[in-house]
Specification:
The structure holds two protein chains of two kinds.
Chain A (H helix, E strand, L loop, with lengths): L7 H6 L12 H26 L3 H24 L7 H24 L5 H23 L12 H4 L7 H20 L1 H9 L1 H6 L4 H23 L4 H15 L3 H25 L5 H19 L5 H33 L9 E2 H8 L3 H13 L3 E4 L2 E4 L1 H23 L5 H11 L5 H7 L18
Antiparallel strand pairs in A: 1-3, 2-3
Helix pairs in contact in A: 2-7, 2-10, 2-11, 2-12, 3-4, 3-5, 3-10, 3-11, 4-5, 4-10, 7-10, 10-11, 11-12, 11-13, 12-13, 14-15, 14-17, 15-16, 17-18, 17-19
Chain B lengths: L3 H9 L5 E10 L2 E11 L3 E5 L6 H8 L7 E6 L11 E4 L13 H6 L14 H13 L15 H14 L4 E4 L8 H16 L3 E5 L6 H4 L2 E6 L1 E7 H4 L2 H8 L5 H12 L1
Parallel strand pairs in B: 3-7, 3-8, 5-6, 6-7
Antiparallel strand pairs in B: 1-2, 1-4, 8-9
Classes of the chains: A mainly alpha, B alpha/beta.
């Protein structure tokens, strides 16, 4: 840990110089706790914001806050007080943020542009005003501009314990309100019209949600920064949404991911004071989201791809085994029995219309599973393989028989359709579809090569 | 065109479940409903008319969900504010996001919110009432299923269960039969008949002319204005239907209407 002249908070945090790496300063601990609490609140409020389709509103609030922060600092400095004092800056940010949202709503209500465009226009305009004011402030004498730029990208390491306590208190307030309003928020998010018919004011609930978004955004300005605060609201909620369908569980998960992201960001900022906290927080959240998107058991992309691949493989296995069985039948073993002749893999490939290499891969795989015996260029069903093949043949013929019986397809069409739907058909279901449940009927079509 | 139902209810000495006077609604500069005066009698009433006739608009405006340029809606002779707990609502299924993180039971519980403190958990008694409503529409086994994993017909039945859980005396239903399977349609019809038998009233937007006579005792034919209203036998005539649908009704539908009218 090097002494950082530009970061008084870190200097204060090292209350016991040389006490060793194991001892974290009081200040660092408070900042860490404050950021975790902030993430907790943002995760909870963000879940409702996401469900109500208000994620971009949070972005507008964040960007619109900049002119408020700068103006507040100017006013405080002009009055001769310490412009770094947090409460007036946060109040300015909140006011400007609310004004930004009102501007978005007013713009959208003119029906000249849609809400997404209104949000883009308002957030960039307000932000531009803020940037212009900021450059003006920097020409002013005095300390008005001191540390204002840290609100843009966030710098937890520059926070004093007092600042962290403020942020933590505001975040706790938002969290408590959110939990108290849980039922109302859920009703208004799912079906606002129904809530209104029941006498709940959806407008008032929306206003409460907006208030919560503004509160969390403002609380997070110093730690995360106004550009990236939207991510702390959206990423934990989006992550949790991938992991569960239950709202209470979703809120809990979202809060945990938010708290972890906030703490990770603060820790990174403490370790590397030049790293903007906002970036660290967002990267931690984005990592969680990416993991959930890829590996969520239910909605993840990887498990889904695996499930699809497994289903495809199972279908190909069944097709192979059935082809082996039917080759026996075609060779004169008679329906319902599996003779013990060897069948050339090339003949099976021809019967399925497969490339020979594919048939070979399947043959080797099924040999590994002990369902076929492989010798030279030929296969032979093992007893287990024959049982599996018989099930597959029954399922196929049950579907064929059913389709033909209801007149839904001709023989060739029934064969093709059955190939698609037979997999996963239980033996019981097959019995219900077959005219004689216990026996294996003959194929309705000639066996052998596919056209 | 002011309805028979109002008179019948007046004879019975109690105000009608729903009474609409001079309702005019416009979207922007385009009027959708023109000076509609109509009252729904007790029992089952269908609102029928072509696309864009203002059927859903009538219901939403009566419930105060969209602003009316003029006109009033009275429920049981009172303002909606006074009798909210006696009025139930079944919105169109497509009006919500079914991917929302909620179970069927969660959704039905929302009907019980007015009976609960607005903070804290759903009390056991309210949860049981919601379960009973789900059982009534045949979804008792799917109470814990995420709503996105229900079929379209099952989702519609969840909405119906939510309306039932409101335990209202009048239900306004927006297309309860839209895009449902035959089993769900029969389940909904059975519920409507039970409601009517229990003295409750239902006003439902309906789009299938061939089943109007089967499902409803009264009908309102709507096309911007109230074209005809009254018992299905009297008001649901080929002439009134032609007047409501203009030239938009094709011959095939006419045929089925005639058949329905005679039965």
């Amino acid at each position: 840990m090097r002494p950082a002249a530009g970061h008084p908070a870190r200097a204060a945090g090292r209350s016991l110089p040389g006490a060793g790496a194991m001892t974290l300063g009081y200040n660092t601990l408070v900042v860490l706790a404050g950021c975790a609490l902030l993430g907790l609140a943002a995760g909870t409020v963000g879940a409702f914001a996401l469900l109500r389709g208000r994620a971009l509103v949070a972005d507008a609030v964040g960007h619109a806050a900049l002119p408020g922060v700068v103006l507040a600092a100017m006013i405080v400095a002009t009055l001769g007080h310490d412009p770094r004092s947090l409460p007036p800056l946060l109040a300015g940010a909140a006011l400007a943020g609310v004004l930004g949202v009102l501007a978005v709503q007013a713009l959208a209500r003119t029906r000249r542009i849609r809400e997404d465009a209104a949000i883009a226009i308002v957030l960039s305009s307000f932000y531009a005003v803020g940037v212009a004011l900021l450059s003006y402030v920097q020409t002013m004498p005095g300390a008005a501009q001191a540390g204002l730029t840290k609100f843009i990208l966030g710098q937890a390491a520059a926070m004093r314990a007092e600042d962290a306590l403020w942020a933590g208190a505001v975040a706790t307030l938002a969290l408590a309100l959110c939990l108290l309003l849980f039922q109302r928020l859920r009703a208004a998010c799912f079906d606002p019209d129904f809530a209104r018919v029941q006498g709940m004011s959806a407008a008032r609930t929306d206003l409460a949600l907006l208030g919560l978004i503004v509160t969390v955004t403002v609380a997070g300005l110093q730690a995360v920064g106004l550009i990236l605060i939207v991510a702390l609201l959206v990423l934990p909620a989006a992550t949790a949404r991938l992991l569960t369908y239950r709202l209470p569980r979703l809120l809990l998960l979202s809060a945990v991911v938010g708290a972890a992201s906030g703490a990770a960001g603060a820790a990174a900022s403490a370790a590397a004071p030049d790293l903007p906290t906002g970036a660290a927080v967002v990267l931690a959240g984005a990592a969680c989201f990416t993991l959930a998107l890829l590996f969520s058991p239910d909605r993840g992309l990887v498990p889904e791809a695996l499930r699809r691949a497994r289903r495809r493989l199972a279908a190909a296995e069944e097709h192979f085994l059935r082809a082996a069985w039917e080759a026996q039948e075609a060779a004169g073993a008679g329906p319902g029995t599996a003779g013990d002749r060897w069948t050339p893999i090339a003949a099976l490939a021809a019967a399925r219309g497969w490339a020979e290499a594919r048939a070979w891969r399947l043959a080797r795989w099924l040999a590994l599973r002990g369902l076929v015996a492989l010798s030279e260029r030929q296969v032979h069903l093992t007893p287990r393989g024959a049982a599996a093949a018989r099930r597959a043949v029954r399922a196929h013929r049950a579907v064929e028989h059913h389709l033909l019986a209801i007149g839904a397809a001709d023989t060739a069409g029934a064969d093709r359709l059955a190939d698609l739907v037979e997999h996963g058909l239980s033996p019981e279901a097959a019995s219900r579809l077959l005219p004689e449940p216990s026996s294996l009927p003959a194929s309705p079509h000639a066996l052998g090569g596919k056209p | 065109m002011s309805a028979d139902g109002g008179e019948a209810a007046a004879r019975a000495g109690s105000p009608p479940p729903l009474e609409i006077r001079g309702l005019t609604v416009a979207y922007g500069e385009r009027p959708v409903l023109w000076d509609v005066t109509w009252s729904a009698p007790p029992g089952l009433t269908g609102i029928v008319g072509p696309n864009g006739a203002g059927k859903s608009t009538l219901i939403k405006a009566a419930l105060g969900l969209i602003p009316a340029l003029s006109g009033t809606a009275r429920f049981f002779g009172r303002s909606l504010e006074e009798v909210r707990n006696r009025v139930g609502y079944l919105p169109q299924r497509a009006s919500v996001d079914w991917d929302f993180p909620a179970t069927a039971l969660d959704v039905v519980c929302m009907a019980r919110y007015p009976r609960m403190r607005w903070w804290g958990r759903v009390p056991r008694a309210e949860r049981e009432a919601a379960r009973a409503a789900l059982a009534e529409v045949g979804l008792a086994d799917l109470a814990e299923r995420q709503i996105g994993r229900l079929s379209g017909g099952q989702q519609q039945r969840v909405f119906l269960a939510r309306a039932l859980a409101q335990d209202a005396d009048l239900y306004l239903m927006d297309e309860p039969f839209a895009a449902v399977d035959a089993a769900t349609e029969q389940a909904i019809v059975a519920v409507l008949r039970r409601l009517a038998a229990a003295g409750r009233s239902v006003v439902a937007v309906h789009h299938d002319l061939s089943t109007v006579a089967d499902y409803f005792a009264h009908v309102l034919l709507l096309n911007g204005r109230a074209i005809a209203a009254g018992p299905v036998r009297d008001a649901f005539t080929p002439e009134a239907i032609a007047a409501a649908y203009g030239g938009r009704l094709n011959l095939l539908e006419h045929a089925s209407v005639h058949a329905a009218g005679r039965s």
